[in-house]
Amino acid sequence: MLYHKHIFICTNQRAADAPRVSCGEAQGLELIAEFKKQINDKKLPIKVRAQKCGCLDVCEKGPSVVVYPDGVFYGGIKKEHVAEIVNSHLENNAPVEYLRIDK
Question: Which of 14, 20, 39, 91 is the most buried (most CB within 10 A)?
Fold first, then answer.
C-alpha cells in the first residue's frame, strides 16, 4: 500500500458566468499547501497524500475535500480547518462531524 489515506482537494475552476459555483483553483491550492504542511509537521505514523482533484460534485458546499478510503466529504473548508482535520481524522481516525457533508 502506497498510502493509508488520500486527501483530494477540489481545485475545479468554472467560468465566471457558469450556472454553478466552483471551489476554485486558488482556494484549493492554498488548502493543498496547508494540508501538506500540517501532515509533514505532524509526522503521522501513517502514509498520507494530499493532492488536487477536479470537481467532487458538491460545488455549493465547497471548498470541498474528500478523505479516502474513508469516503468522508468535508465542505466549506478554510485554511483554519486543516489542522483540525489532520489532528482528528488523520491522526485519530475521528472525522470532524461539523464539517462533514453527505452527497
Answer: 39
Cβ neighbours of residue 63 under 8 Å, at least 6 residues apart?
9, 10, 23, 24, 27, 28, 31, 75, 76, 77, 78
Domain ranges of the chain: 5-101
pLDDT of residue 21: 84
Per CATH, the homologous superfamily of domain 5-101 is Glutaredoxin (3.40.30.10)
Residues forming a β-bridge with 58: none
pLDDT tier at 103, thresholds 50, 70, 90: low
Q: Is the dihedral of CA 73, 79, 81, 87 positive or negative?
A: positive
DSSP per-residue letters across 40-60: HHHT-SS-EEEEEES--S-GG
Closest listed residue to residue 11, CA positions, set 81, 83, 82, 63:
63
Does this model's pTM top 0.90? yes
